[in-house]
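fwd from M.: "can u put these together and see what the complex looks like"

so here's what she sent:
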Amino acid sequence: MHWLDWLVMLGTLGVIVAYGVYHTRNIKSVQSYLLGDRDLRWWTIGLSVMATQASAITFLSTPGQAFEDGMGFAQFYFGLPIAMVFLCIFVLPLYYRLKVYTAYEYLEGRFDLRTRTLTAILFLVQRGLAAGITIYAPAIILSTLLEWDLNWTILGIGIIVIFYTVMGGTKAVSVTQKQQMVIILSGMFVAAIILMYQLPEEVSFSNAVDIAGHMGKMNIVDFSFDMSNRYTFWSGMLGGVFLFMSYFGTDQSQVQRYLSGRSLTESRLGLLFNGIIKVPMQFLVLFVGILVFVFFLFVKPPIHFNTANLQVVEENQMTAAEMDHLEASYDMILNQKQEAVDQMVAAINSEDEAAIAMSSSRMDYYQQVDAAFREEVRWLIDVASDGNAKTKDTDYVFITFVINYLPVGLVGLLLAVIFSAAMSSTSSELNALATTTVIDIYKRSVVSDREDEHYLSASKWFTILWGVLALIFALYADLFENLIQLVNVIGSLVYGSILGIFMVAFFQKRIGGLAVFIAAIVAELVVVTIFLLDQYEVINVAFLWLNLIGCVLVMILAEIFQAAGIGEPAKAASQS
Amino acid sequence: MPADEQPPILGSWRALYLLVIILHFVLIGLFYWFTRTYV
């Protein structure tokens, strides 16, 4: 990497961290440390909420997803603005009135300590493991392509995050996230502009979109009601609303962001800002992937984007010769494909519908041939690695473009974007993990009668503890590939039930703690069963629907159990 | 409930929520137009 890229990357990250630490140097109480004195303005809250959700893998993976499958992934976020409005109306006023530190604190007042502790532990387990992956996932991709040492990359990200999160608590997280989000959005915008300039002179922006459209990449909205289709308007609007209500309303890493607001008004405005900006931002990130797709129609793309996998194939005597043969054929096909692309550009410019249709079908053919080549390479990688390599390479597409085709200086900026995204989401996670551990477990059930300084110190030590655990998990994650998948799945499986518990708390006032507790366990078993049936291909249900199913089941079952006389009556509806 | 201040624009929260939802559906409409035009 060029020294200027190092300078831009380290300079950008260094300035952000230094600003965060300097800005929060006078934190002296546990309230300041965990709630940031509740003085944040709406734009800081909005950017902080966005930065928490957008991890590094969002910016590595999403363009690759558009490159492979088109723009349909944008529908995943369709439920988000509606969820934001729901939370502003029903949830934020409640949290503000009770002056809670965590979302789970509210559940004790409404139900009992048992439900509060269970939900807090579910969050700690799920988010504690996820924090390790938030560091590991970008580190493995960057270290592979930049030939950095994986462990040092993980330690580099982790130690910096732990440092400023421990030093400044929640306010350090929010103020750094504001800067990080500005860098992220500017970096992606610059990448889109550069991509347009990197296209051949005769290809205009409109041509690029036309080409992508004719090759089936501009399919943003799909109104078909197909439960097995992962991203449709309906799965986004129905499943997505429940997912985002759960994530933003009950996941402490998000709740803590808006509880630091100066007032209820500032927090509401912050969430609504997120509701307005998030979908266009995802559109921008996906559109960058589309431009990368068009770019690689004019510039020879690698036959496989993960260079480490290609090296494994080259080093294996059984597969190396086959790979050479494959690459030679691939080059030949690319030349023919290039002619077809030129033909398509000419047809589009002449507005000749018949020629456009002919070149489209020719391009379809070459796309299929291209896919067949890539599939064969994946098979070779499988053989060469004895099935141990991850053959999916879409996460490597965008970063391959960044490293090889962006001008010097901008490579550093885009790497700063990736690192900023990794740090911003990890810092929120560590901050929320420490807060939940101190407030919902340590102070509530272990040591409840000490002075403020003690809990401030405990908060810092628990931040370090969770940071070190995340680092250990990240350092050993490559040994537990299945565990990583399991952690990703757990999030989808538990969010619906957790939201169900909160929905019962908010809206079903006569239901007591035991009824909702049993309902949550039964609902969780049903959700896991549906998931397993889907995995074994007995039924076909896209994962977004599990959020809706889990939530609705808890609400219905709790009502039935309460009516059947299971458990105690509800506490007086004092928390509503 | 905590003191429910008015939002800085549009005079009421109801109007602001409506604006967010309308903007969202306008955006989805644009996406749909995009899909129809280019696919």
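replying to her w this: Chain B touches chain A at residues 1-5, 7-8, 13, 16-17, 20-21, 23-24, 27-28, 31-32, 34-35, 37-39 (CB under 8 Å).
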